[in-house]
Known about the structure:
globular, 6-stranded mixed β-sheet, Flavodoxin_dom, Rossmann fold, electron transfer activity, 42% helix, binds flavin mononucleotide, 198 residues, two-stranded antiparallel ribbon
Amino acid sequence: MSHMRNPNRQAAKRRATQSENSDTILIYNSSNGATEKYAEWIAEALDCDVMKYSRAKLGYASMYKNIIFGSWIRGGEITRFNMLRANLSNFGIDNNNLIVFATGVIEPTDEYRTFVKGLNGCKQLPDDCFYMLPGKYNSKDCKSADKIALKAMGEKIFVPVHDDQVQDAKERFENGYDGIDHEAILPILEKVREFRGA
Ligand SMILES: Cc1cc2nc3c(=O)[nH]c(=O)nc-3n(C[C@H](O)[C@H](O)[C@H](O)COP(=O)(O)O)c2cc1C
């Protein structure tokens, strides 16, 4: 009868997945594709809904128990996060589970992480709900608007970076850097699975 057990298990798994995959949405903002890559990987692994950030559609988040927001860091700012953060209570989602991830090319040392968390109003967010993932930058295939913005920011980007790290950070922008790593999403998957199990 073992051939009977397997289909049943499969059906149970399917049912579980069907009720699971509508509990989580991933909202992302990406300019040059690095954050989008992570968004795709995470959404695929979790079988969850995914949408590009749009101010008009932000309210959809209220239909989900778990909200993952991912974006890229620009001069320390997690782009577009402000709009979500400022409206959490308007959307009635201040009690939903929120996970934020940000991609960047500056090494997320404890010091830099504390800076980014603070600047973006994420101090209250538990450490296992806030992730800084290695991003990607290359002047050769970066949108010209972003390149211009980067130039305009100049040294300001490095002010919050520890002296020991500044040279490395500058070289990542100058020589190009690709830190994109599939493994980096694993703690996020684990956290969402924990939320799903709760
Ligand atoms: C204008 C500009 C400012 C940036 N500022 C930062 C920064 O403050 N900290 C950081 O770690 N990376 C910074 N970066 C690097 C981007 O965050 C990184 O390239 C990111 O992975 C891009 O994501 P995307 O490909 O999804 O747009 C900056 C890049 C640009 C173009």
